[in-house]
């Protein structure tokens, strides 16, 4: 059994790669507190690979992951081949999910993929401090809420954003 300490980031590779790259740049910046153990560092699934080969590599990433971050852009809800499959795997594994709205919204929006729309997940805007807060705190909150039988989308209240110095 692999040690699960990684964060699996799921996103539209055709349209939202720049957001994923920005997250990795935040992580690499010595002046930033942003940090996560990136599951994508385990292997690199290539676009030219066969679907089953890619999924085998993605399953390896999941085996080492404790959290799924879904970058939700304009087209994410329409993706059926890998992004939907990744969300379904995370749900089967009872993995905590952080939905990150690339449009800056704090709440689940109409852009949210149907696969996770009514599932137990936390939603935040694409801002460094609140994403880090969610990655650090949601796994424990998720476990507690799951045990209590809670479902559906969750959001941080204004006091969390104020505490983090975010006023949007």
TrEMBL record:
Residues 8-105 form the Thoeris protein ThsB TIR-like domain. Pfam families: ThsB_TIR. This is TIR domain-containing protein. The lineage of its organism: Bacteria, Pseudomonadati, Pseudomonadota, Gammaproteobacteria, Cellvibrionales.
């Amino acid at each position: 059994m692999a040690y699960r300490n990684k964060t699996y980031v799921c996103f539209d590779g055709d349209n939202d790669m720049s957001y994923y790259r920005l997250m990795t740049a935040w992580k690499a910046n010595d002046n930033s507190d942003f940090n996560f153990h990136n599951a994508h560092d385990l292997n690199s699934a290539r676009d030219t690979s066969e679907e089953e080969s890619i999924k085998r590599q993605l399953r390896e990433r999941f085996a080492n992951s404790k959290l799924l971050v879904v970058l939700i852009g304009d087209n994410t809800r329409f993706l059926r081949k890998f992004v939907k499959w990744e969300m379904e795997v995370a749900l089967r594994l009872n993995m905590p999910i952080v939905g990150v709205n690339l449009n800056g919204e704090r709440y689940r929006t109409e852009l949210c993929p149907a696969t996770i729309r009514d599932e137990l997940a936390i939603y935040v805007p694409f801002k460094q401090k609140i994403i880090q807060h969610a990655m650090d705190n949601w796994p424990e909150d998720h476990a507690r809420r799951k045990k209590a039988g809670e479902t559906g989308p969750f959001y941080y209240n204004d006091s969390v954003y104020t505490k983090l110095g975010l006023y949007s």
